[in-house]
Structure formats: structure tokens, C-alpha cells
Specification:
Blueprint: E1 13-15, H1 36-48, H2 52-68, E2 71-75, H3 83-93, E3 96-99, E4 102-103, H4 117-131, H5 134-137, E5 139-141, E6 144-145, H6 153-165, E7 170-173, H7 178-188, H8 192-199, E8 209-212
Parallel strand pairs: 1-2, 2-3, 3-5, 4-6, 7-8
Helix pairs in contact: 2-3, 4-6
């Protein structure tokens, strides 16, 4: 029994966007006023050098901190490289989470791998097939195109089709900075989210779409 007098009791919180496998490893390395694009390119370079053991421990560290403050569920937007190694951390923590593999088919300043559309779709589908409903359904796997600015319309539509076919979700990074909004207006006469809305397949039911605001252009 826990004496909860003078305490607040709530359901577990949800973190809707957390790069759980490496974010903690970068704390204190880069100055706060660093240009966002320089920061991101260096962060992904650092993460690219991490081993399976590194990711397991940084993931466990991140989840431990989440649980300490009442967060029991989170979305990792596809940046974990060694999902199988991190499954042990997910199982040990008892958390609920959404995983996937982020992909792009256009050159990008983050130095992320660029795949042909077919391979990008195959990688997302393989991750959904392998990890969706794992750990007694505590793990869900979504389609995860990295960002509409670095993914073709063909890839974005294919990701949406995967989400529909497997009855799962889709998430991507999406900036609403003035420069990004203007880029979309110039190229399509639409704001970013309006552009994404128009790409959706005309089906009666749609997979949930989680969007996260990022600082990169």
C-alpha cells in the first residue's frame, strides 16, 4: 500500500516524440546556440557511431528518466538503429511505445541514408511486420517517413498505404518555421500540413497521423 495523501495520482503520461536511443548521450556536448542544422548533422553522426550495447544502455537510461517523472508511453520516431537489442530495455522497463524505421529518398543535411523508394518502403514494412504487437502488444510499429521535405510524394503516399494496410499509424517530422511555410507556399501554394492533407489516400478511414514541430528548415 502507498500512502497517497497530499499526492496527485494520474494515469501514466505519454511522450509523443522522443529520440530515446541517443538523445541522452548528446547532453552537454553541443552549445545551446548552435545552428539547428549543424546540431542535427552532428547528432546523427554521433548516433551512427553507436553500437548495439551503446543503444541498449542509452535507451534504458532514457526510459528510466521517463518513468521517474510518470511517463509510461512514448513514440520513438524511427531513429533507433538496433531495435532488437533495445527490445530488452523495453521489456525490462514495462513501458509502452511506438517504434519504426525512419527513411528518406532525397538528399538531406542530416546525413541520413538515402534509399530508392522501393527499398525505403520495404524497410518500413519489414519493421512493422517484425515489431508490431510485440511484448504482449505493448509495442506498436508505425510507418515513419522522416520528413516531407526530404521524402518524395511517392514515398509519403506509400507510407500512408502501409499504415492503412497494417492498421497502424504514421509519424513524420514537420517544421512550421516561416522559411519552411514559405517554401511550401512557393512550390505548391499550400501550407505544410495542407500539403500533407492533400496527399492522403481518398479512403473512408485514415490511419492516425502524428506530426511534430522541429526547428530545422
Amino acid at each position: 500500500m502507498i500512502d497517497a495523501r497530499e499526492m496527485v495520482v494520474t494515469p501514466g503520461f505519454c511522450n509523443n516524440h522522443m529520440h530515446i536511443s541517443y538523445a541522452h548521450a548528446t547532453r552537454g556536448i553541443f552549445p545551446d546556440n548552435l545552428d539547428p542544422m549543424v546540431y542535427l548533422s552532428n547528432v546523427f553522426t554521433l548516433q551512427g557511431a553507436m553500437t548495439e550495447e551503446d543503444e541498449y544502455y542509452t535507451t534504458l537510461l532514457g526510459i528510466t528518466e521517463l518513468l521517474k517523472y510518470g511517463t509510461t508511453c512514448f513514440v520513438d520516431p524511427g531513429s533507433t538503429k538496433y531495435l532488437e537489442a533495445c527490445m530488452q530495455a523495453y521489456e525490462e522497463s514495462g513501458c509502452r511505445l511506438v517504434v519504426g524505421e525512419h527513411v528518406t529518398d532525397k538528399p538531406n543535411p542530416m546525413r541520413l541514408p538515402v534509399y530508392p523508394v522501393d527499398e525505403a518502403v520495404r524497410r518500413m514494412e519489414a519493421t512493422i511486420q517484425r515489431y508490431d504487437h510485440r511484448l504482449d502488444d505493448r509495442v506498436r510499429a508505425w510507418a515513419m517517413p522522416f520528413d516531407a521535405a526530404f521524402c518524395s510524394d511517392e514515398l509519403l503516399k506509400a507510407a500512408k498505404d502501409l499504415a492503412d494496410r497494417y492498421n497502424t499509424g504514421i509519424t513524420l517530422h514537420q517544421s512550421n518555421r516561416p522559411a519552411t511555410v514559405q517554401m511550401y507556399l512557393d512550390s505548391s501554394s499550400k501550407r505544410p500540413v495542407e500539403y500533407l492533407e492533400d496527399l492522403r489516400s481518398p479512403r473512408p478511414q485514415h490511419a492516425p497521423i502524428a506530426r511534430h514541430r522541429h526547428r530545422y528548415p
